[in-house]
Amino acid sequence: MPIKAILTDIEGTTSAVSFVFEVLFPYAARHLPDFVLRHADEPQVAEQLAAVRAESGEAQADTQRLVEILLGWIAADRKATPLKALQGMVWAEGYRAGQLKGHVYPDAVEALQRWKQEGYELYVYSSGSIQAQRLIFGCSEAGDLTPLFSGYFDTTSGPKREVASYRHIAQAIGRPAEQILFLSDIVEELDAAQQAGMQTVGLARDGGELPGHGSVASFAVIDLARL
Which of 14, 107, 130, 168 shows the greatest Cβ crowding within 10 Å of its Cβ? Predict the structure, then answer.
């Protein structure tokens, strides 16, 4: 069945893992405490802080304690949805201030632009919040890339290593899973997508292989017509 839609991961796939771990995470760790203290009473922030209390099991935690919990989650690279949402808000301030520019590999930019022109639907699925995804592409070093994408998915659609998440995404896209190509650098994610019926290509940018999946070092060598 021919591919009609492409679903791509971000970290290690369209963008360098180092950008996330060496730029975005340290920026959030530095600025999140002040951000939370300044905005704790605003509805969208208060909603996420309530979710932190629930997920941490500390129902009575005050704002300072919540900051401590969040910093611990950042240090542990915990895939907690309220943390991702708050990080996205902090990064939004940084992007608006011009302190951050999203990294997207040039080969990914070129391929995504070409695929869009050729009529493929493009989607993103990342553990980072949808807001963070929009920011990394919207304020990228290559300019605003958000017009390329038809939709975004994050962990609210389910964990990235679970088959059900990809079935849910295929349903949301409105296409049979067999018509969707998933791109990632993580073999467990590729396995889950494959088990859901999607086609897969692994990004092994530093060489090597992702067992069970075709592997490439660059978007430039992905030939959709041959998949």
Answer: 14
Measure the CA–CA gap between 131 and 168, rounded to whole angstroms: 20
Look at the domain 19-96 and name its fold.
1.10.720
Write out the two tokens for 158.
């389910």
Could you say which of 3.40.50.1110, 3.40.630.30, 3.40.50.1000, 1.20.1250.20 is the CATH number of the domain covering 5-16+103-226? 3.40.50.1000
The per-residue pLDDT string of the chain (227 residues; one tens digit each, 9 = 90 and over) reads 899 999 999 999 999 999 988 999 899 999 999 999 999 999 999 999 999 999 999 999 999 999 999 999 998 989 898 998 999 999 999 999 999 999 999 999 999 999 999 999 999 999 988 988 999 999 999 999 999 999 999 989 999 999 999 999 999 999 999 999 999 999 999 999 999 999 999 999 998 889 999 999 999 999 998 88
Angle (CA) 108-15-49 rounded to 5° is 135
